[in-house]
Amino acid sequence: MAAETGTARQVAASWLLPSAEAPTVAGQSITIDNGRIVAVAPDTKASAAGTLALPAFANAHDHARVVRVSQVGSYDVPLEAWLPYLALIPAIDPWLASVVAFARTARGGVGSVMAHYTRVQGLTDFPTEARAVAKAARDVGINVALAVHCRDLNPLVYDTHDDVLAKLSPQACDCITRRFLRPPVPAAEQVAMVDAVARDIEGDNVTVQYGPAGVQWCTDEMLRLIGEASARTGRRVHMHLLETRYQRIWADKTFPQGIVRYLDEIGLLNERVSFAHCIYLRPDEMELIAERGATIVVNTSSNFIVSSGLAPVGEMLARGCRVAMGLDGLAFDEDEDALREMRLAYNVHKARGFDVRVPRADILRFAFEHGRFAVTGAADGGRIAPGAPADLLLLDWEALSAELVEPDVPPLHLLLAKGRQDYIKGLIVGGREVVRDGTVATVDLPAMETELLATLRKAAPSTADMRTAMPELSAALAAHYGNDFYCG
Ligand SMILES: [Zn+2]
């Protein structure tokens, strides 16, 4: 599959999908040197390689989480009641947690990932933890943007939480107060921490972004500070936006001028910013986002799983938005399969009869071009061409095409009809072989997963208080979001 001559490496492809807009071409040899693609040339011998090469995928919204929904009993819970379930996950060694998350991401076909770090393990100070996350990223070898979480508002619900606490027993109220209602670190300190962490860990394949949790979770002071800091430093910003109908109602009551116009006023609507979800955007807001060049990250599986809704992807594209793909730690089969995620999004949004809403080139940009830009800030990726970064995904063409009856079915049809991570043979990121023969080559993922599961099970009693309080909290949250504020 890959041969090395001197420092350069050759990758032979039976088929090459060079970019979102270019057709697949047969029999190509790709030369990689010093982390970049230096040549792509026809090679008749390459036809026998049994490989379909395409740009590595990007996962532009994730959280470096290691626990699947069903592992902590939070399947089928709407987002607002689901978020507190994260407190059931015990704090563990951040390197172990991150290395498993990044290795699973790589095995799922992703070369660049946004780690919106909303769940700090907290066993040490944050700079020490961030160093461990950066080390995990480098050990695995994929591009990681660590979006450092900033939050100082609405710790439990999107408005006052008195009615929620009033519904709880004294024991549950004590637990929730202890775990969720600690006074926040001052906004300026949180923003300064992002810059300090960036100075400490950035380099190679790791970058740092400001990661405000979302408008409903940050004070005006916090968001303005981030808008100013991003303009000053050029550092990118990643945040949640309008993920649920309750967030939309809260936003409409809080910002008479409109939440997207508010973001524009405070310097958080520009090319440096990416927004996760955006399910409840209105057409005029999509147009403003498109005009300012911000990126929208759609998370189809996650939106199904936590019952948030369906993003208007066709409308976003029609209004000119740059739309990228995210898995949000909630892939449909509780794996990290980026190929299936792309296919799911495509099948959900592609067309109504003959009215095509998502052209194939757009779903490919969604999968490997726009997300890479949101993660790395570099616009030269998502393509296999001389000068581009050497981020390649290599699929097993023999297996993918094994059942063909008609020999000339385009490779792209097979990719969109049945592509999934089982077909992944290799993943190359910055010229480094991260997945080889379908297995993560840089770290021992199965051994780490075994260690992780044992660690989580051993530490599970540390969150027993939360487990006891969950049924009461869930019922109180359901009642809260059914109240007049959200229904009236
Ligand atoms: Zn998220």
TrEMBL record:
It comes from the Bacteria. GO terms for molecular function: hydrolase activity, acting on carbon-nitrogen (but not peptide) bonds. InterPro entries: Amidohydro-rel (IPR006680), Metal-dep_hydrolase_composite (IPR011059), Metal_Hydrolase (IPR032466), MTA/SAH_deaminase (IPR050287). Transmembrane segments: none annotated. Keywords: Hydrolase. Residues 53-402 form the Amidohydrolase-related domain. Belongs to the metallo-dependent hydrolases superfamily. ATZ/TRZ family. This is Hydrolase. It comes from Pseudolabrys taiwanensis.
